[in-house]
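Take our chain:
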Amino acid sequence: MSTKRGIEKLAFVRGFFDGMAAPMLLYRAHNLPEIPRIEPVKAPSTPLDRVLASDWRQIGSDIDTVIERHVEATAKK
């Protein structure tokens, strides 16, 4: 019986002190990871109208490719 009472007492004491120490965990110092230095990238000085025209040309090319693949895939069936 005394062993059971000793274990209960030990569990109570540990739980009590863990509970008392819990608020300290909220304010402990956290070691943050190192952030690698990132070099900024400068955008090319191409005029906006040329950039947009190039984008639309590429989009049109992609759409043409998709249509061609669809026609080939449906023709084989």
